[in-house]
Amino acid sequence: MRLGHRPERDKRITTHVGLVARAFGAEEMILAGRDERLVSGLEDVVHRWGGEFRVRSVGSWRGEARRWKEAGGRIVHLTMYGEPISEKMDEIRSSGDLMVVVGAEKVPAEIYEMADWNVGVGNQPHSEVAALAVFMDRLWEGEELAREFSGKIEVVPSPRYKTVIERPEGEGG
């Protein structure tokens, strides 16, 4: 869940949060707030590049977090003020369904209380995109990098050249 998205200031970073979430194994991005251009842009990436990733906007992050917890899910809040990721990852990994909360502007103090874990990916200022990527990679232990997406566009790994397969409409995805 992306908290505190400000459409006029954060569209690029929030888009990158969504791209990292998708590429690194998340099933869904929940945007706390409204930004239909951002949502449709991420949906277009899924359409072209493949995968089962969903994007949705919600009016109340509190309501969404409460419903998640009531259904038995656990919440991880990524913050530089949290406990070190290396000390908590085994516990988190074995806990079941997770909602990972990534803030934009200053997050409400309430999220620190609602979260099952407040985890720091380092304790120095850095990008929330970097924190999410490191967290997701540690969560999946690198396995997410081998996932295959069946989209209209596919990058073929090459040591020197850019090789891209573009399938006609109706194939892939």
Automatic annotation (TrEMBL):
Gene3D superfamilies: 3.40.1280.10. GO terms for molecular function: tRNA (cytidine(56)-2'-O)-methyltransferase activity. One of its GO terms (cellular component) is cytoplasm. Its main location: cytoplasm. Keywords: Cytoplasm, Methyltransferase, S-adenosyl-L-methionine, Transferase, tRNA processing. It catalyses: cytidine(56) in tRNA + S-adenosyl-L-methionine = 2'-O-methylcytidine(56) in tRNA + S-adenosyl-L-homocysteine + H(+). Belongs to the aTrm56 family. Homodimer. This is tRNA (cytidine(56)-2'-O)-methyltransferase. It comes from Methanothrix harundinacea (strain 6Ac) (Methanosaeta harundinacea). The lineage of its organism: Archaea, Methanobacteriati, Methanobacteriota, Stenosarchaea group, Methanomicrobia.
